[in-house]
Amino acid sequence: MRISGVNIPDEKRVDISLSYLYGVGRKNVVNILKIAEVDPAKRVKSLSEDEQKRIQKVLENHKIEGDLRAEVTENIKRLKEIGAYRGIRHTRSLPSRGQRTKSNARTKRGKRLTIGAIKKEVAAKMGISAPATESKAK
């Protein structure tokens, strides 16, 4: 089964496989299947054509995949343009929902970079001149 450009796994249950779509979570799946009148325990491969069409018809009312991704991108772009705090946090690649950044937020901030003293051997490999300590000694 293919919905809005995404192949849904055939071997899994309908309620699990629909959550492969961007914008459809476990909570939404329950409502979608209830409206489409499809048993959530059924496997995707055993769905009839009529059931597949009912599911696709219900999903037309929801923003999923490309439409939702575009909307989220537009929202972030708008926040950046108006200079909102959340937009600035997005621009700087920092958490925008109040999380602490002193000790966590590694996913958002990236790998740790050591800032400070560099050993002479490392500086030589990098092509950086070693810090001048001789002038202080005099």
Distance between the termini: 78 Å
Let me know the largest β-sheet: 2 strands, antiparallel
> Which sequence of strands runs across the widest sheet?
1-2
CATH topology annotation of the largest domain: 30s ribosomal protein s13, domain 2
How many structural units, i.e. domains?
A: 2
Characteristic terms for this protein:
single chain; 138 residues; mainly alpha; Helicase, Ruva Protein, domain 3; 30s ribosomal protein s13, domain 2; two-stranded antiparallel ribbon; 8 helices; 3% strand
Descriptive account of the structure:
It is a single chain. The longest helix has 17 residues. Strands 1-2 form a two-stranded antiparallel sheet. The chain contains 8 helices and 2 strands; from the N terminus they run E-E-H-H-H-H-H-H-H-H. By secondary structure, the protein is an all-alpha fold. The chain has 2 domains: 58 residues, Orthogonal Bundle (Helicase, Ruva Protein, domain 3); 73 residues, Ribosomal protein S13/S18, C-terminal domain (30s ribosomal protein s13, domain 2), CATH 4.10.910.
